[in-house]
Each structure stands twice: as structure tokens, then as C-alpha cells.
Design brief:
The protein is α+β, with helices and mostly antiparallel strands. It has a domain of about 140 residues: GTP Cyclohydrolase I, domain 2 (2-Layer Sandwich), CATH 3.30.1130.10. The chain contains nine helices and seven strands, in the order ααααββββαβαβαβαα. The protein has a five-stranded mixed beta sheet with strand order 5-2-3-6-7, with helices on both faces. The two termini are about 20 Å apart. The structure holds guanosine-5'-triphosphate (GTP) and zinc ion. It catalyses: GTP + H2O = 7,8-dihydroneopterin 3'-triphosphate + formate + H(+).
Length: about 210
């Protein structure tokens, strides 16, 4: 059992606790201004005057995943007309996320597969689920597990497989300064966990040796 399983009981585990009061936009902009001052810059010079507002606006986009419930995204499904008992794979879904330790980008690719039981989902919805979880403060292990668990919980397929490969800018642009190092995480559920042949087929489809 992975240490993240408990935190994953609900797909949306890293949302704001109810007791936490969300700061106003003005407070958020003031916080950015404070950081600019802390860096040693003049927040009133022309080039920086609008920066706090820009940063807060960009955060709305970069961390917009909290506004989406993956269960809603996956709610619209289609009954299979012909029984399709093979893997459905969305391969190479690029995403941008932010590590929760340094708030620096995690840039990566997700491969998301499921083995339908009796319903299929519009394929774009798998990419939307990736974004809904990526556009939050994350660690890659949790991101991987959340995507897989949401698909399992909502679609109840025979199995789900998620592989994420990424570069962590907190490792490349600061700290240990290691470039071109990939972090790979996987989450296998159902037939992909229990059936070695199915898992091998999945890894072959994404171009890895299983
Ligand atoms: N497991 C895991 N670690 C991550 C992820 N993103 C960032 N980290 C790591 O989180 C760790 C935080 O370590 P700390 O020692 O608290 O922070 P730090 O002093 O800034 O560490 P360095 O990055 O080694 O300089 C670092 O080792 C990061 O590489 C992630 O998605 N998963
Ligand atoms: Zn980091």
C-alpha cells in the first residue's frame, strides 16, 4: 500500500479546508508585492507596477484545477454498441503542474489507459481529468494516483493504468541542478495490476518495456 492511499480516499483530497478563509484578490496581490520587495526589487518601478495583478491572474489559470470536480468531467459516458473489450489509451497528454514543495513547474506527459466494462467516456475527458489534478499544488505520486483513482471510482472499468513522466524544475533550475532527469510514476489498478500480460500490453502501447 502506498503512503498516499489514505489521502486518496476522496479524489479531491487536496482542496482548501472549509475552515480556511480564502484571502481577497487585494491581499494576494499585496503578498506578491511583498515577495518582490523581499527579492530586493522596487515594486513601484514601471515594469513591476502591474506585476502583482498579473501574477494573481496567472495563478487563477495555473491553479484552476481546484474549480473542477473530475467526477463531473467523467459523468458523461456512452454505452458501447459493440462490446469493446480492449485497452483504451490516451497517450502523451502533456501537462503543466507545480510541485507543492517549491511551487516550481512540473512539466510532463501522462499516459492514461482504461479497460472498459460496459461504458466508455469521451476521450477528451481523460485529458481534462489530467488537467483538473495537474493544475493544483502537487507531488507527482499523488497526481498519478488521483487520476487513476478518479477514473476507477467514476467509470468502474475492469482496470486503469496511468504513467507519468516529467521534469521537475525544482531539480533543474535550482537545488541539485540536474537537467534532463525524468521522474516516472505509475499507478496500476484492476486488470493492469493483477494481469501481467495486460500490463505488458499497456507498456508496449506507450513504448516502454513492461
Ligand atoms: N517524491 C517527490 N518529491 C518531490 C516532488 N517534487 C519535488 N520533490 C522533492 O521534494 C523535496 C523537498 O526536499 P526538502 O529537503 O524539504 O527541500 P530542499 O531543501 O529545497 O531540497 P533540495 O531540492 O534537495 O534542495 C526535494 O527532494 C524535491 O526534489 C514530487 O513530485 N515527488
Ligand atoms: Zn519542488
Amino acid at each position: 500500500m502506498s503512503p498516499y492511499d489514505n489521502a486518496l480516499a476522496k479524489p479531491q483530497s487536496n482542496v482548501l479546508p472549509a475552515a480556511h478563509r480564502k484571502p481577497t484578490r487585494e491581499q494576494a496581490e499585496r503578498a506578491v508585492r511583498t515577495l518582490i520587495e523581499w527579492i530586493g526589487e522596487d515594486p513601484d518601478r514601471e515594469g513591476l507596477a502591474d506585476t502583482p495583478a498579473r501574477v494573481v491572474r496567472s495563478y487563477e489559470e495555473l491553479f484552476g484545477g481546484y474549480l473542477y470536480d473530475p467526477a463531473d468531467i467523467l459523468a458523461r459516458t456512452f454505452e458501447e454498441v459493440e462490446a469493446y473489450d480492449e485497452i483504451v489509451l490516451l497517450k502523451g497528454v502533456r501537462f503543466e503542474s507545480f510541485c507543492e514543495h517549491h511551487m516550481l513547474p512540473i512539466i510532463g506527459t501522462a499516459h492514461v489507459a482504461y479497460f472498459p466494462r460496459d461504458r466508455v467516456v469521451g476521450i477528451s475527458k481523460l485529458a481534462r481529468v489530467v488537467d483538473a489534478y495537474a493544475r493544483r499544488m502537487q507531488i507527482q505520486e499523488r497526481l498519478t494516483a488521483q487520476i487513476a483513482n478518479a477514473i476507477q471510482d467514476v467509470l468502474d472499468p475492469v482496470g486503469v493504468a496511468v504513467v507519468i513522466e516529467s521534469e521537475h524544475h525544482c531539480m533543474s533550475t535550482r537545488g541539485v541542478h540536474k537537467h534532463d532527469v525524468g521522474m516516472v510514476t505509475t499507478r496500476m489498478l484492476g486488470c493492469f495490476k493483477d494481469d501481467a500480460e495486460r500490463r505488458r500490453e499497456f507498456f508496449q502501447l506507450i513504448g516502454h518495456r513492461g
